[in-house]
Amino acid sequence: MVYTLQSTRQLHDGIEIPILGFGTYELEGDAVKRPLRWALETGYRHIDSATWYYNEKQCGDTIRQFMKDADVPRKDIFYTTKLMTNVSYEDTLEKIQASLEACGLEHIDLYLLHSAIGGPEKRRECWRACIEAKRLGKVRSIGVSNYGVAHLQEMLDQGVELPAINQVDLHPFMTRTDIVSICHKHNIALEAWGPLVRGLRFRHPSITGLAEKYNKQPAQVLLRYSIQNGFIPIPKASSKERIIANTQIYDFELTKEEMAHLESLDEALVTDWEVTTCP
To answer: Annotated site (Lowers pKa of active site Tyr), which positions (predicted)?
Structure first.
């Protein structure tokens, strides 16, 4: 299949999402403004923020200024943010409203529960609030992040609306085949929040070998793997050079054998945060 920076995929709720996102984790406050502006100028239209990133206002300000300067309509931007802590139904609705006011973008395209931490009751109530916020038009799509098989099965058992997306740490060194399997079975799209393995495996011989073969950077090989697997990678970069390079992944294709080999590298490598098995 031929992909481009403008490629989108349809979520099970009918919403179109760009298949490559720009991550803003660890770009707190004003630190996000310049990299995000570069990303938007490069052609990224899918921006991933979170209350926990402390940059929702700055993301919104930068996006709105770019839309004005470049005459880009709001419908061309896909903005994601996330609930920091699962507390209650009312608290979640308040937090969604606060996030909406912080970004100033009319609506939130995708709202995620950042984790399953808090237990079954809080998860259920916070998800119920997400469904209500979607009904009210404050958010367009709703999903979860860092949900494991047990958390997704819990939702299936409850018979509630299923998340459009589960955003987890996914890469060749953490393939999470059990989570991928249940998401595929129920048409839940997968976003990869750590597709570049935080640079920890850029020198792995399998990665450098493919990079040399295709005249690409290790990061580009990892992003291509994610795209070809049907994931939606959310790479973060702060330099203009890397921001641009992370989009140059559409002029080569890994073979089936190469994809299978990359899958075989799984070592359950945790790069940052691992809560998919929390109670």
So the answer is: 82
